Every structure is written in C-alpha cells, then in structure tokens.
Amino acid sequence: MSDVMDVEKMEGIRRGRRLLLIPLPLEGHINPMLELAHILHSKGFSISFIHIQYCTNSLNFTFSISSFPHGPLPLPQPSSDLLNFLTLLNTLALTPFRDCLAKLLSHDASSEDEEDQHPISCLISDAMCFFTQAVATSFGLPRIVLRTGAISSFLAFAAFPLLLQKRYLPIQECQLEKVVEELGPLRVKDLPVVNTNDPHKFYDLLRNFVHETVTSLGVIWNSFEALESSSLAKLTHQFPTPMYAIGPLHKYLQPSQMPHPHQSCISWLQQHAPKSVVYVSFGSIASISEADFLEIAWGLANCDHPFLWVVRPGMVRGCDWLEALPSGFLENLGGSGRGHIVKWAPQQQVLAHHCVGAFLTHNGWNSTMESICEGVPMICMPCFADQNVNARYVSHVWKVGLQLEKGVERGEIERSIRKVMEGKEIRERASILKEEARLCLQRGGSSYSSLQRLVTHIMSFNVYSPSH
Ligand code: UDP
C-alpha cells in the first residue's frame, strides 16, 4: 500500500475523534495553539478550542468554548506583571476549568455542531497552564502539552534547582559574564530569569511548570531537530516523556489561512529596495523605558536604513504611545517615509517580505522562529526570561544575529544594524537555517515524521468515557 493510501486510511479512522485544546491567553501562546489546531484538524481530528477569558482587574475567569475552525479570538490584555499573572491564573482557573471540562465531557447534546458530539481523545494544554494537569487526572483524561518556547530554554528552566544549588542563582552582578558550564553556551546573564522582588514565587512557578510538563503524556515543541538537536537529545536523556518537535508550526499553513489586518505595512514595505528595511518589534508583552525607547529611535535614525517599527500603545512605560519622540522625528529623517511606525503589524508577512533585511527583536520564541524561517538575520535585544536564552543561541550557536551586549545604546544599535545588513556570513547562515526549516516539513523530514508519531500517539489513547 502506498504511503498516501496509508495516510488516507488512518485519517478515515481518525475522523470522529475530538481533541480539546487550551492555550495560555497571551498572543505568543494563542497563535501557536491555533496553528496546532489547524494542523491536527487537517489530520482528521475535530477540535474544541477552550479559550480563557479574563479580566485583569478582578481576575475572574469564565471559559468560552468554540468549535474549531473558527473566527479570530479576542486579543488578551498584555500584563504588566507576568509573574503574578501566571501564578494567579494557575490558582484561580482551576475550578472554572473543572466545571468547563465536566460540561464538555458530558457530551453537550444541545450543540448543533456534529463535531461537538465526537468522543474526546485527549486534552492538549499549553505547558504554562499547569493547573490543567490535576483536573485532567481527576477525570481520567489523557493530557499532553504544547510548549511554545524553545527546547534549549526549557533545559535551562529544568536546571533551576541545580543552578540554585551551585549558586549561579540568584544572579550576582560580579558573575554576569561567567559561563554556566552545565548549560554552555549560556553565561549567567543569559539565564531565563524575570525581574521580581519575590524570586521564590518565580522558582515555585517554574518547579510546577517543569514538573507538570515532564509528567504529561507527551510534549509538543514548536521547534525542529536540525535547530535544537543537542538540546532535544539532552532533554530526552533526562526525561522519559515522549517528545515531538514538529515545528515550525506556522509554516504548515498558507498565509491566507490566518487573518491579517494592518495591510498598510505591506504597501509601505513595497516602496523600498530589496533587503533594505529594518523591522523592529518587541512582541506582545514586553515594555521598555522611555530612555531605551529614545536610544532605539536615535539608533534607527542614525543607521540610514528604512525601518518599520511596531510600537504598541502602552509599550513605552509611562507613555500612551509616541509622545516621548522628539517632535518632527519621522519627518526629519530625510528621504520620504524612511521610518514607518505602527501599532501592530502582520509580522509573519512582514518577515517574509523581500524588502526586509534585518529584525531588531526581543527574541520571543515565536518571533525568533518566524525570523529563522524567512532567513532574516536578527539584532537581539532580549528583555526577560527565555528571551535571554534565545538571543544567546541566535548569536552564538546558530550565528544568525548579533546581540546588543552593552545595554540599549544608540551607537551600538546603529553599528549592529549596519553589521547585520552588510554581514555576508550571518546572511549565509540565515539562508542555510531557512532551508533546514523548510526541509524538516517535507515528507521524510524530522518534523513531518514527528507529526506522524504524534498522531499515532494520540490514536493510542482510549476515547474518553465517563466510567474512566
Ligand atoms: N506579532 C504580530 N504583530 C506584531 C507583534 C507581534 O503578529 O506587531 C506576533 C508575532 O508574529 C508572534 C507573536 O505576536 O507570533 C509574539 O510572540 P513572541 O513569542 O515573539 O513574543 P511574546 O509576545 O510572547 O513576548
């Protein structure tokens, strides 16, 4: 029997099974979970997407359940205190989630959607929603997780007990440049910490997150083997949990499958020379000081390249939007429309545009993967947590970018942009990685095979029945 027929036969069997997917309600987590939903739907599963709606003031939770495919979901509010947000979410969401799951598992006969009636195979939870483990266990429902960050940063999170024991943590100023031997190439300053006056709360959160990830029935990674083979090998050596590196998730989809407003960016890009534009974005959560904002603005102004800059309202601490910029800043840059500032951009499309030549990024994992997949070299300006690890790998392992090492300073930004724009080696490395990201999804590629294994793994679960 041919491979294709094999696949078709399997999908015939699979149709009629339902998966419950629950993302962490933040942009950088909802997007990959939506992409995973599309991928598994295309493999014959029906999908119920459980979206946590929350109100930042009172942190009251309700769950709305939508069958998938569906329209775009509402964007969550970026949080100003991520650590507290995650801690509270994992405490307060437990009971409403239990109620929500009880309703779903009792087969909502009132639903008119045929797919809502399909028996449930398992729960796929964002790894940061570790409250889902206890609830899934209490119902006897298999749970696997999607980790939306890199494998390499997870290794660092998993090493926290050791890092504390060996006194790399808490971080001391005099040790910043010291290499962490157990986690090379990371230095102490690359460790994935957050700024907090309650580090024990952070360590507790990480302990739960790591434990409920590695005790799940499988971990799905938005990464691919050629990129993180050594970290994946270390992780599989440390933990027996089945691992599925099936990324880059966004590359399974045609761009037209995801909604993309803000098209004005694309027509602006169109006016510039190939590979000449610096794209600047710090993701959906990070905030920066007014002083750093101005250093970036002057670095961009002085580098002489056109730039497209995403400044989210509220991203500059203490400002509504752009009022910290000197008046006439954009108009005085010289050349018509050399700088374009927007509140949000269709990032995947922007990075795929032939006029973009470099990405000044905070190195959130999605942004890092999206840049790698388009062969766009990076200037790394990590802000917190796993972004530090990602930036170190980009600059020193994959060698597809340069990291701002002296803080946020206009001269260094200008020099780094020029170097990256003109650097032949970095550009060649970026092209090679881009090709590897493409190949891993082809038939026989590592992510293609991992996805097949994941589907087989899901099919090995008994469908849920209340008697479990
Ligand atoms: N993003 C976007 N437009 C923007 C800024 C960000 O579409 O103007 C998307 C980006 O493509 C990525 C996600 O938001 O998929 C941000 O995730 P990432 O992990 O890079 O950073 P986070 O927001 O979690 O810090």
Q: Can you describe what's shown?
A:
- Keywords: Transferase.
- GO terms for molecular function: quercetin 3-O-glucosyltransferase activity; quercetin 7-O-glucosyltransferase activity.
- This protein is of the alpha/beta class and 468 residues long.
- It folds into two domains: 15-247 and 440-459, Rossmann fold (3-Layer(aba) Sandwich), CATH 3.40.50.2000; 259-437, Glycogen Phosphorylase B (Rossmann fold, 3-Layer(aba) Sandwich).
- 41% of the residues lie in helices and 14% in strands.
- It is built from 17 helices and 13 strands.
- The strands form two sheets. A seven-stranded mixed beta sheet has the order 3-2-1-4-5-6-7, sandwiched between helices. The chain has a six-stranded parallel beta sheet with strand order 10-9-8-11-12-13, sandwiched between helices.
- Helix 4 (94-105) runs parallel beside helix 5, helix 6 (151-158) packs across helix 14 and helix 11 packs across helix 15 (410-422).
- The chain is globular.
- The model is unreliable at 1-6 and 67-79 (pLDDT under 50).
- Bound molecules: uridine-5'-diphosphate.
- Uridine-5'-diphosphate binds at residues 27-28, 31, 281, 283-286, 310, 344-345, 347-348, 364-367, 370.
